[in-house]
Amino acid sequence: MLRWFIVCLICCALPWSALAATEIEISSPGEQSIPLALTWFLPNQGSQSARVAAEFNEVLDADLDLSGLFRFVSQAAFLDDAEHVGLYSTQVNFPQWRMLGAETLIKGTYSLDGETLVVEARLFDVVNRRLLTGRRYVGERKDVRRMAHAFADLVLKELTGEAGPFSARIAYISDQSGDKELWLMDVDGKRPLRLTNHRSIVLNPDFSPRGKEVLFTSYRANNPDLYRKEIYSGKEAKISYKQGLNVAGRMAPNEREIALTLSKDGNPEIYLIGTSGRVRKRVTDSWGIDSDPSWSPDGSRLAFISNRQGNPHVFITDIFSGKTERLTRRGKYNATPAWSPKGDRIAFTRQEGGRFDIYTINTDGSDERRLSFGPGNSEHPRWSPDGRFIIYSSDKAGNRAIYVMRTDGTGARRLTDTKSDCRHPAWSPRW
Amino acid sequence: MKAMQMFKIALVVLFIFGGLVGCAKPVTDDQANVTQPDMSQQKEVKVADDKPMHGDAVPSHDKMAGLKRINFDFDQFTLSAEARSVLGENAKYLSANSGVKAVIEGHCDERGSDEYNLALGESRAIAAKNYLVSLGVSAKRLSVISYGEEKPLSNGSGESAWAQNRRAEFKAVN
């Protein structure tokens, strides 16, 4: 009898707790902003380190600023509560924050014991005087940036229902070492790490949908061949090495097939191959160039580029029925389609006035929007896993560098320096 | 009395349940929603092994004095009259030096999709090869490779640099 009563209570509690979750629906970032007070984290126990606090604050501030969801309350206006360590909602002086116009508040503490770092981070609802979410991160001193990115993801999850993409990584091609090699960096451009040492030309990286592998093309064996590389183990294998092109490899959402461009039959066409390289299906068949496939999130369609009607345009083909339609109608050169993770839009580049800029369009060809307006060329657009941002390369500051912007074209910022040539960014799935 | 007890137990269960799934809101206790991911447990990314891959570098085919490069228009692989006349000379050279095999490299300027340019560079190299074959050069002596926009002759930007980079080159194979 008692047991039944408890089960009943739990069942009742489930929908109730879901309903009680306050989510703020934000459809167009930049137009709506939440006033946020982001305080510096205070030392709790152990030794003080202004650098730990500064680094955490800098990373979190940059991530949340990029989201476009917040208006930051000036730190110069902060009153004495910003100096109080207490993290329980009963210990926070909410009226003080309310007075400064803040509706949300981030407070936290850190303790550094040798190399061991513990960070406690909290997000408060100032209006309703309550804790929204919090985390305790345990790691080493060098993990402080990852902790801050993880908390930024959590803050977005709490306020919008969709976690941020800041804990992910970005793969890209850089010639920093003298050759074009595959590199990996944080989403804010920090901690670059070289993954290949082919001393040749490495091109076109793309993550497997679960993020454990990267596909890329390399000239290491004197032909543009397709490789796969496990990120954690560093293991690498050449999977497609047919005569001619083996390029633009993109793993299907189910990770069982790879779409790529092969020219083994004398003309560049898109094929599906198994993960060991065996050809399973030829997808395109036209006299011209077919390349640059990008999967729809459900794995049923591919967007690609073709010059079958004269100029390069973006087409969409259903891989089961073979039905193919042209997507882009304007311009004379449209390229590098990238399907959004939500499936509704496709990002691509168009040459207009001798220069490439980034556009997005609905998958039915409606609602085309231009996101970049020079100077220089902006190319290689790819989506963040949450669909909030587009990462791309641009030569507007000299050498080609990696940039990120919101999907409405605002908030553009450069992530890599311009000392070397950086291109072809790909945002990993969430790790 | 018994009902009261039951109610208390139910409250405790509800509280624990909320704490366990970590999504019950609003949060009544500040610690209820706080979990502890251990950052030190996450796997670190492995760096590439740094052993040099000798012999794996991009092949540097010897340039052949007798074979001249040809140029193309933007996004085109058709052979201009000028390109055809250069290829005619190249064909004569190859006929006179019958032991020579050549790699035809197709190149593009930096603009446009890398993947598309890889395909375009190949089309350029194939167009040059087919024309040489039509002039009587054995197809067995000619192979093609595309470098897309990856190996520009000129690193500059602007039409004069781009025009130089849109090309097919002929290199001897050992």
Write the layout of secondary structure elements.
The complex is a heterodimer of chains A (431) and B (174).
Chain A: H1 2-20, E1 34-38, E2 42-46, H2 50-67, E3 70-72, H3 94-99, E4 104-113, E5 116-125, E6 130-140, H4 144-160, E7 169-174, E8 181-186, E9 193-194, E10 202-207, E11 213-218, E12 225-230, E13 236-240, E14 246-251, E15 257-262, E16 269-274, E17 279-282, E18 290-295, E19 301-306, E20 313-318, E21 324-326, E22 334-339, E23 345-352, E24 355-362, E25 369-370, E26 378-383, E27 389-394, E28 401-406, E29 413-414, E30 422-427
Chain B: H1 2-21, E1 34-35, E2 62-63, E3 70-71, H2 81-96, E4 102-107, H3 114-134, E5 142-148, H4 159-165, E6 167-172
Parallel strand pairs in B: 4-5
Antiparallel strand pairs in B: 2-6, 3-6, 4-6
Describe it.
The complex is a heterodimer of chains A (431) and B (174). Chain A is mainly beta. Chain A folds into two domains: 29-160, 3-Layer(aba) Sandwich (Rossmann fold), CATH 3.40.50.10070; 169-427, 6 Propeller (Neuraminidase), CATH 2.120.10. Chain A contains four helices and 30 strands. The radius of gyration of chain A is 24 Å and the shape is elongated. Chain B is α+β, with helices and mostly antiparallel strands and 174 residues long. Chain B has a domain at 62-172: 2-Layer Sandwich (60s Ribosomal Protein L30, Chain: A), CATH 3.30.1330.60. Chain B is built from four helices and six strands. The longest helix of chain B has 21 residues, at 114-134. Chain B is globular. The interface between A and B is large, with 85 and 58 residues.
Number of domains of chain A: 2
Q: What is the helical fraction of chain A, as a range of percent?
A: 10-25%
DSSP helical segment count of chain A: 4
Task: Name the CATH homologous superfamily of the domain at 62-172 in chain B.
Answer: OmpA-like domain
Structural class of chain B: alpha+beta
Number of helices of chain B: 4
Radius of gyration of chain A: 24 Å
What shape does the CA trace of chain A take? elongated
